[in-house]
Specification:
By secondary structure, the chain is of the alpha/beta class. Helices cover 37% and strands 21% of the residues. It has one domain: Response regulator (Rossmann fold, 3-Layer(aba) Sandwich).
Length: 115
C-alpha cells in the first residue's frame, strides 16, 4: 500500500514542491494544511499514514498541537525546520527532522526512517 502523507506547510510554493516530491517518490499526498486549525480535522478524518510538519507556521504558530494529535493516533511524523532544532519543543526533540532547504533525497530518507 502506498504511504499517504499529510503536509503541514504554510508556504504554498514549498507545499507544491513537497507534493511533487511525494508524487515522484510514489507516495500519496493525503492533503496539505497551512495551520493547526486546518490540520486537526484532517487528522481526525483519518487516511493518513505519515506527516511532514513545518515547525513554524504563520503568525508565530507552532505545529506542536498537530504533533500531539498525530502521536495520540500513533501516526509517525517528521519535523521540517530551517533552524538547528532549538525551536522544537523538548518532548519532541527525539523525533526525526527534515532540514530546509528540502531535497528529494532528504524527503525520501525522512519518510523511509518513519517506517
Amino acid at each position: 500500500m502506498t504511504m499517504r502523507v499529510l503536509l503541514v506547510e504554510d508556504e504554498p510554493l514549498i507545499a507544491m514542491m513537497l507534493e511533487d516530491f511525494l508524487d515522484a517518490l510514489d507516495k500519496r499526498h493525503a492533503g496539505t494544511a497551512d495551520s493547526v486549525a486546518a490540520a486537526l480535522p484532517m487528522i481526525a478524518a483519518g487516511g493518513i499514514d505519515a506527516a511532514i510538519l513545518d515547525v513554524n507556521l504563520r503568525a508565530g504558530e507552532k505545529s506542536f498541537a498537530v504533533a500531539d494529535a498525530l502521536a495520540a493516533k500513533g501516526i509517525p511524523f517528521v519535523f521540517a525546520t530551517g533552524g538547528g532544532g532549538d525551536e522544537i519543543a523538548a518532548e519532541y526533540r527525539d523525533r526525526p527532522r527534515l532540514s530546509k532547504p528540502f531535497t528529494m533525497d532528504g524527503v525520501e530518507k525522512a519518510l523511509a526512517d518513519l517506517t
